[in-house]
Structures are given as C-alpha cells and as structure tokens.
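User: I'm putting together notes for a lab meeting next week and I want to include a structural view of one of the chains we've been expressing. I don't have a solved structure, so I'd like a prediction I can at least talk through. The sequence is below, exactly as it appears in our construct file.
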Amino acid sequence: MSSDITIDEVKTASSALSMWAHIATVGADQEPDVVPVHPCWDGETLWIMVGLTSTKTRNVAENPRVALHWQVTENGDGVEVWGTARVLSDIDTKRRLWNGVFDYDLNGFAPGGPDNSPDTAFMEVTVERALVMKMYGMGGMQRYSRA
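Assistant: Thanks for the context. Below is the predicted structure for the 147-residue chain, given as structure tokens.
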C-alpha cells in the first residue's frame, strides 16, 4: 500500500487535534480495553508513560498490537494510528525520555524521577499505519503506511 501522507503529516494532524488519545489493547483474555493516554512523539515513535502493573502494560505483554485514536474535533476531524508496542523500564530509557520528549512534567506522576520510580515505565509504539480524516471521512481521508 502506498502512502498518501508522511509520518510527519500524521504527527502534525494528531498534535493539532489534542494532547489526549485513546489506546486500545487486547490482553490474554482476548477482551479489548480502551483508556485515555497522553502520547508524545519522538521522531517517528510514539511514547506513553505507563505503570508496570497497568492493564495496558499487561495487555501489551500478551499482544503487542495497539491502536490509538485522537479525540475528534467538533467538525469531525480525527486521527487513528495502528502499530506495535513494547514496554521499556530500563534506567537508560527512563533517563533519556524523562526530560525533553514529553510536554508535561513526569515528576507529577512519578516524583522519584527516572532513578527512583521502579513502577514507572514507557510504552514505545512503532507506527505501522495511520488514517487522518476530515469531517468523519466525508471531507476526505489520508493514509500513511510504514510499508
């Protein structure tokens, strides 16, 4: 499949919609789970701060396929992303991401910082495809594929 748009255009569209998205995961019980998250882009990768015991972390350990949907505007614009996730909790990753990648203060959720927050991890999402919609798709749809 060829892409209509680039990953940079997907990033721009998602960032223009909202800082919030909903992530869908499926766990060992084969039941879907959808929760709001505050993902941030670093290059072509989406990062999400997670707890090591959260449902989404447990689900990704069973099934790394995820989908994200940015909240739709009043006029129906939206972004959907599909990809593969993995959870990283090593100290080097925590230190690298703690400052400069996220647009909010991670210390508010993990006051021990990267070195003293053992239950904190980061979910890395490699985007494989995306859909940018205008007016619920009636105003056009653009597709991205990692190919």
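A couple of points you could mention at the meeting. The chain has a mean pLDDT of 93. Helices lie at 7-17, 55-62, 91-98.

User: Perfect, that's what I needed.
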